[in-house]
Write a structure and sequence with these properties.
The chain has a 6-stranded mixed β-sheet, sandwiched between helices. It has a 4-stranded antiparallel β-sheet with strand order 4-5-6-7, covered by helices on one side. Strands 1-2 form a two-stranded antiparallel sheet. The longest helix is centred in the first third of the chain and has 27 residues. A hairpin with a 7-residue loop joins strand 5 and strand 6. It folds into 2 domains: 328 residues, Neutral Protease, domain 2; 160 residues, Roll (Nuclear Transport Factor 2, Chain: A), CATH 3.10.450.50. Helix 13 crosses helix 16. The protein is built from 16 helices and 12 strands. The protein is an alpha/beta fold. 38% of the residues lie in helices and 15% in strands. Bound molecules: zinc ion. Zinc ion (ZN) binds next to strand 3, helix 9 and helix 10. This is Peptidase MA-like domain-containing protein.
Length: 510
Amino acid sequence: MTPLTGAGEQRGAEVIDEQSGARAQSPVDGFPEQASPSEQTTIQIPAQHAAADAPKRPPTFEALGTWTLAHGTLLRRVALGVAISVVAVTGYVGLQKLADAPAEPGAPGNTAQPQTSSTPDEAAEGVRRAAAGQPVLQKMADAVLNESRGSFLSTVDPEAKAFDEQARTIYTNLGKLPLATFQLRYVSDDTGALAPDRQAELGGTESWLAQVEVSWQLTGYDTKPARETLPVTFVTRDGTTYTASFSERFVAGQRRPIWALGSIDVAEGDDSLVISLDSQKDADDYAVVADRAVDSVSRVWGKNWKQKAVVYLPAKQSEMEYVLGAQPNTYTQIAAVTMAELDSPQVGAPVRIVANPKLFEELGKQGRRIVLTHETTHVASTATASPVPLWLAEGFADYVAFTAVSVQDESAAKELFKAVRAGKVPRTLPPPEAFAASSADLPQAYESAWLACRLISEREGQSKLVKFYRAVHASKSPTGLADAFRTVLGTTEAEFTADWQKYLKRLAGV
Ligand SMILES: [Zn+2]
């Protein structure tokens, strides 16, 4: 799926990740230290394809409580120059889950495990601390909405110098965002989360860690607020309770809001909002590409969606992983992902496109446009909360991307054609596991899914392809796919598969 043929930008590069053991850490104060887990990445031999990592989506809504991210293992072989993407559905991370999860290795003060109150006295203490903490949070949230910097900073512990600096950046960041709402809600106590030496360091009469739900909604982009859980350190001194950190004891897999990771630049296009942590990048340039992607998607999908895209541009891969709540190095070879910024996947959740800075940059202009169009298709079709099979979600996203940016079949389906010419015609439409990062046939999975969608479009017309997608997406029935094959396309999956196999052979010249 190299889209760069003929443009003088053919990359043909393969990235081999050395899987460095570096782990990202969260210092007690200040921004999380940005480890560089992929420093050892080397560019090697030619390859054609891009990898994606597609987690299995929860089969039912009820399963959400226990469903967590399954981003898979690192893929050793990956190519640049193709739409590398994934539908990343953020997993539900309940507070109990946080308490059960291992603390980030190396994070300060992680020797003590969070506990929940178990006796009436402890419960009463928890209520008392919540009553002390919530007003502080309320003051912060009000200050953000009222644009009162002084009030916001007055909630910060005067002794917490590093956090004071971080708080100033956070306040400035939030001021750059078109916020419709911003709320902080005290959720629970993490009794015992702060080790005695940390408590001694904080001083005051009392200090503790609480989990706080932060929610914010972007005017013009979000129909529901984004939600994340932040660990907030409180300290009481001289009778006043302050905040002393927003990043203490982050556990692996806990997502972090982009505005809490460092200073951001915000660019607003006609239909897109780009939030960048990379001061070297011109966020406006990316807004132009995102605007084009929105337009390209609307041309195929129609205008019956919000027609807006929010793009996050981290400066480092580790920041991307923080935003996604992914383990370090998970996304070493993924150029961009689409994620719902909510604890549970659902229609209407705010969806973000998150770029992996290094790979995204290396894709070149045309490649970035393809990737953004692919991801924006996922946004339009709410793929983060959809029952459509992955072959249809990914194939359709590539169909839209390659409709916007013309690509030669021979290069776009290189791996698949090679297999078909060797007599290995896929026996079925690619199953979900074929899209896992560990899948050996990942390029073929994307290529064959794309050509399945293209076949539908060529034979029935593009509008039928969209209708088919929408029918499967809207279906609540386990037979939704079979029903759509019958009612929209007048065929069966088996018949279609046979036609598609013939189509692949014909395209490959077999
Ligand atoms: Zn995708």
